[in-house]
Structure formats: structure tokens, C-alpha cells
Amino acid sequence: MGDRVILPQLEQIRGREVLEVGLGAGYYTEILLRNGNRVTGVDANPHMGAHLPVTIHQAPADDFSRLVGEDSVDVVASFWMTEYLSPREVTAFVREARVVLRPGGLFLSTFVADRGWGWFYRTASRVRGITKHSYHESDMTVLLEGRAHEIVQIPGRLGLPYAFMVMIRV
Q: N or C: which end of the chain has fewer CB within 10 A?
């Protein structure tokens, strides 16, 4: 379901320097590369993307700018990673993204919703002993420190909320 929202955004990113945070096995990385982007990754578990033709820095999402460098990318993208970040870590992640983004750059990230299917997903994870975080759209103003942002809903089945994508132009 999320690809209906994410892929049209990715299709607009062409010929850019992209930093993908939490790239995992590289599903979205491969799309970014096909679109002529130069992609660098940051992941706490870089071995997952070792097969990808990109440089991957091993670092957490809330502390990577020192490895990447200031004003070095046009886009910071992250998909299905923020559920592992606490509110404090989300705020630090956005700060780190702002450090590496060039003026006019784009921050693009998904967040699991705190209601609907997002609530079920988070609750099922906790039953299995995995802590995941979910957010409400109204949390974004605080977590993003009041930065102007656009939110696009990512519905689940039956139209129930699952997640949303946040976009910030710097």
C-alpha cells in the first residue's frame, strides 16, 4: 500500500545526490539508482545492503552528519525506519538531515501512524517483544521543531490509517 504514495515521490527524484538512511536490503535504493541518482547510505546494519553498488556508512539515524559532511546531498530519504526511533531520536534524525542537506534540499520520510493499522502493527510488535514507535500527524510539529512540512497519508486496507510520509523542503 505504501508504494502507491512513495513511488510517485521517488520518480520525481532524478540526477540527485541522495542519502538514504536505514536502507536495509535496498528496495528503494535500487529505484533511486535506476533514476540516475547518486546514492549514499547510512544504516546501523550496513551488511544488509552490502550487495548494493553504494557506499554505506555504519551509523545510527541520530548521529551520521559527521560521516557524510555538511551540505553534501540534495535529498535525505528514509522509508520504514522511523518506527525504530524514539521521539528524541526522530528530532535528532531531522537535525542530522538538515546538516547534510544542501539549501533547497528535500527531506522525505515515512512514519507509522498511531491509529488504525499502525496501532495494530505497533501492538503486535510489542507482543513479540519488539519496541516500535508510532506517531500522530500532530506530533510532527513538535518532533520537527516547527519546521514547515507536508504530510501525505499512506492508507492501509479498508482505508484505515497505516502510516504517513513527511516532506520538508529546506
A: N
The pLDDT of residue 79 is 97
The backbone region for 5, taken as left when phi is positive above 0, alpha when psi lies in -120 to 50, beta otherwise, is alpha
What is the model's pLDDT at position 166?
A: 95
- Compute the distance between CA of residue 84 and CA of residue 90 in angstroms, rounded to an integer: 9
Q: Grid coordinates 525504530 are at which residue?
A: 84
| Alpha carbons within 13 A on the beta-carbon side of 151 | 17
**For helices 3-11 and 27-34, angle between their N-to-C axes, nearest 10 degrees:** 30
| Number of domains making up the chain | 1
Q: What parts of the chain have a pLDDT lower than 70?
A: 1
Which residue in 26, 64, 29 sits closest to 44, CA to CA?
A: 64
Cross-strand pairs, 73: 101
pTM, to two decimals: 0.94
Residue in the structure block whose three cell numbers are 522511523:
82
Beta partners for 167? Answer: 108, 150
Q: What is the CATH number of the domain that holds 124?
A: 3.40.50.150
